Amino acid sequence: MAHNFTDDLASRDAMIAAYHRHNAAVRAAIPPGRLLEWRLTDGWAPLCAFLDRPRPARPFPHVNDRRSYRELLGLPV
Asked: Cα torsion for 61, 63, 66, 71, to the nearest 10°?
């Protein structure tokens, strides 16, 4: 697998295609029982179940949202 998704960083379509290729390669390489496909919006439950750990009492943190990330990079929000 290449170290970069794509060299065509100016092309949104190329970046999206590279992202999908990368995800497909990961899914092909990792046995299903060892791979958790998880999103931040899923919260604690699937993550804790996958790791066989108790769910923390505190709410799931939501500090790395899209707006914060774009602000960090100096991009318009």
From this structure: -170
Tell me which amino acid residue 52 is. Answer: D
pTM value is 0.64
> Coil, strand, or helix at residue 17?
helix
Cβ atoms of 47 and 38 within 8 Å: the answer is yes
Query: Do 15 and 8 meet the contact criterion of CB atoms below 8 Å apart?
Result: yes
pLDDT tens across the length of the chain (77 residues): 445 778 888 889 999 999 999 999 999 999 989 999 999 889 999 999 999 999 999 988 877 778 888 887 888 88
